[in-house]
Amino acid sequence: MILAAIAAASPTPVGVPGAGIFTSPLILSLSIWVPVAVAIGMNALPNPRGRYDTLMKQIAFFTNVGIVFVLFIAYNQFETFLPTLQFEEKLPWLTSIGATYHLGVDGPSMTMMMLSGLVGIAAVLASWGVRERVRSYFTLLLLTQSAVNGAIAAHDMFLLVLFWGAAIIPVALLIFGWGGPRREAAAWRLVGYWGLGTAALLIATMIAYAANGGGSFDMDVLLKATFTPRVQLAVGAALVIAAATRLPLFPLHGWVRDVYADSPLGVSVLVAGSASRLGAYLLLRVLVAGDPDASRLLAPFIAGLAALTIIYAALVALRTVDLRWAAAHLAMVPGGLTVLGLAALTPLSIAGSVLSNFTGGLAAALIVAAAWTLTDRAQARSLQVLGGLAPRMPILTWVFVLAALALLGVPLMASFPAEEMILFGSFKTQPVGAFAVVAGLVLAAVALALLVHRVLFGQPNPDAPAVSDASLGETWYLGLLAGGLLWVGLFPGGPKLPGTDQPIFDPGLINVMSAGLTDIASPYVAPTAPGATQ
Amino acid sequence: MRNFVFVPEALVVAGALAILLLARGRRRSRPWLPAAAAAFPLVALAVELWVGATLATYFGGALVQDRFALFAKAGVLLAAALAIAVTDWSEEDAPSIGMAMILLAAFGVMVVASSGDFVGLWAGLELAAAAGVVHVSLRRTDLALGLLVTGGVASALVLVGLAFVYATTGSADLLAVRHAMGTLAPTLPLAVPVLLLLGGLAVRAGLMPFQFARVPAGLAASPLGASMIIGIVAAAALIVAVKVAALLTPLPAVFSPYLMVAAAVTMVGGGAAALATRSPRARIVYLAAGQVGWIAAGLATHYLVGMGAALFLVGAFALAATTGPAVMAGADTGEFALAGMGLLRPARAAAIALVFLSLAGAPPLAGFFGEFAVAAALAQSGAFWLLALGLLGAVMSVAAAVGTLRAIYLQSPPDESRRAAGARLPVLTRLSSLGAVALCIAIAGYGVFANPILGLANQGAEALGLR
Questions:
Q1: pTM
Q2: I need a labelling partner for A98 at 20 to 30 A (CA). Which of A206, A396, A532, B240 fits?
Q3: Which residues on chain B are in Cβ contact (under 8 Å) with A176?
Q4: What is the mean pLDDT of residues A445-452?
């Protein structure tokens, strides 16, 4: 009942104390361009011999805090009963080809913006240990966050392509400059796969643009245009390729292992937490919302990719002897689950996918961060060396277990309702895919259980290097990611005053994300049989 | 106002002559000369923007001031001014001649942009190319000779093609030729001169596989010489190509397939070559070649939006390609040469980074906007295969640019004793720093203000008679 109510996106207005205090028509632009401005400003500041490195870190941190504050205001002000775009900004840009600077958020986008904000803070905190070329590092990190925010808020395909592609260069440079031993491979693979994805997205955009007569790139126009099935299929296939390179989905996942395992930690967190989630967001925003025929036609294929992704990730995690590689592959699991929900094309599964994209981002970032920190503290990555660490690493043990539980979607974690909604919504329309995904989840559970048992609770290795538990600084970013998962898991509808339905300061992620979902899911609502009772 | 229209041209020529005359005088240090030389095209640009909106014809239609001329002249003047400002003059063999030659090359482009008939097109192109050859000869006479011979062949091809078109249509006036072309059928006798004409322009612009002398000269010339060869001279050829393509739009079957194949080869080849090389100079030459391919692809669409987009991209190309080698100065021997530039010369390093990214078509800079506009035109004309190949080239170009950025910002500067001769750090002057900052603003601003600039480019395409 609760799940059905969520999927139906009740249009009942929910009053939030403090709503309407602060509004700005530039709220989305601020979240995109302030990091860019700060990045440029940071580079203009003198920093002889790294004297102000700490100041640079603080600037990056407070910029992120400020953005999250602004985003939280937007989240708090969000009209959960409105299906239309909110905080909309629209300016002409390239009028002769129909490209506009059109930003706006609906429920799913607002959810993604919050995810991006939280992950941004976690990424900066996770980067506190950076010692070399600090200014350049945080400049690139801020530029990446700006590109991710832009891709989320974009409501024009031109802008989406621009921001989607703009993320590649700073991430690649971050890996090149601050990555681990396999950074060369990681960065080049990322450039190759993400570049291919950007090209696919641009081709999809151009096919739709040309088929619509070439007047506009605005999503309001392109996603509502009626295309022939052939055009829809071409657009859909290109979008799936673009999404699969970014999320990633099997077989376009070639960058995952090296990027998650050999990037600097802050970059791994940012990519796993928010940048890669853009893949699923693209499928939701453009394919599911704009190409219903292609979505239906490609659904079994996409469900198959989702299942293959989870099964493959779990099998690799079972076989690998490197903890970071195992975590990198396990971080693919939430993406597969999210995509299954989008392939199932039921209102419930789509709502589950939106929630799963948020929770999956946090869970993927948490497992990658936990594995990264643990291996760093244990001075070893090999599973043949790591063992019985729980007594000496109590904090990291907790975090790693929480990450494992979040990946698997156990009750009390935010991923639980998301997983339930996706699976309940999928079994009817994509039974084979759903069964395969469940099988993959079982394998992932086995892999996680073995990892937890071996690394944390197994026999200690007397020959292993000395280990130490997470420091206070490391606890902050791990705690932030785990806290986000627990908060949404405990209060999906926001905390309420006892005895009332009145949310306190948080309108509830479930309420916010539902705004606009009805419109997206409307083509997939099964027609009611005549005479049937509602 | 009408009488002021040619003031920019006069200023540029006067500047070039004055610098040449000064060079003949008593030899003494003139540190103010680069600033003065940069001031000529800057003032000319200001005048052009002030009076350039005037629509007029002169000398019986031989010279035309329209939106096309305004766009092209403004673009080349800005590029020339910035190139002079950012050049490290200690790297140049004869600074005075270098300054004069780039001004003369800019004048050649201005003549091309304003010309209303074949004579002006050919003369302007030759003037720009000759200035480039002179500059290259200051350092490498062998390459200058190669450039001269190849240029001569290209010039002959262009001339023969124009002569055939003139013989076929009975007029050398561009608008009259265009009207006459509308009544002709796409026959083989017409296709041959058109192919000769486009072949000549392809050699001049450096379209693959016609980059015979342009690439070696671009690699071995002095920084400003390379800027002229891969920037201004190519821009002149591309502006002629835009005008010629506008003439030929009634006959797409004659030239479009040829141009599309050449564009595809150039886009992919440029990107692949840029990725394969490690020398920054070579990389910028190949990235520029790749972007020329995008411009050619825009021309192959043979209609207003495509031509407008191509012209818009010519502006972005001229800006980045003309300033690129100049701003890199002596850093032309492997990525090592640029290592640590971000620390040692931050403004120049930022300019180099933006030039590379813009030529690669990376968002959100000038080149991206231009290539996106061309991509939209390609999509509208249904050339998705060409678009796909272009994107393949663009991905490789971006990867190549990332490699250079990595050297600039992530590698430590080598100690001075290990610096090779070709890896000398550019001399830091107030003008060069200011020029580098202005270049960054121009490349970023081209995207931010893309709407009015693309609007002007479209008006320019319309002025050529396109609809």
A1: 0.91
A2: B240
A3: 402, 406, 410
A4: 94
